[in-house]
Amino acid sequence: MAKLTWMQKIILKQAVKKKIQSFTSAGYQEIQQSELLEFLLEYRWKRRKINDLSARLQDLKEVTANDFFDYQQLKIQTSAKTLAELDDFSDLF
């Protein structure tokens, strides 16, 4: 994956923040910037081989909450942790 300059990192973080705001306004208030950024960098953009900043910004616009939650579900299913070791689920109920 191509390295980003500090300016590109700032632009990307602002775009991620804007996406989080759109998720929040749609009712998804528990998604954190760090989690969304992890999803993008470690999963989505690695699989799609997206390295260019403009392509990343365009792809970020297309990300849905379902894409993010599918990744979270995949992460849990492939984790070696037991349910007791996972985080508190009380916010889901």
Structure description:
By secondary structure, the protein is an all-alpha fold. The chain contains four helices and no strands. The chain has helices spanning 6-25, 33-48, 53-62, 65-77. Helix 1 packs parallel to helix 3 (53-62).
Secondary structure: elements and pairs:
Elements: H1 6-25, H2 33-48, H3 53-62, H4 65-77
Features:
93 residues; globular
**Helix percentage:** 55-70%
Overall geometry: globular
> Helix-strand pattern, N to C?
HHHH
Largest sheet: none
Instruction: Detail the poorly predicted runs.
Output: none
Figure out the total of helices: 4
Strand content: under 5%
Radius of gyration, in Å, reads: 14 Å
Average pLDDT reading: 87
Structural class: mainly alpha
The first-to-last residue Cα distance is 39 Å
Summary of the model, kept short:
This protein has 93 residues and is mostly helical. Helix content is 63%, strand content 0%. Helix 1 runs parallel beside helix 3 (53-62).
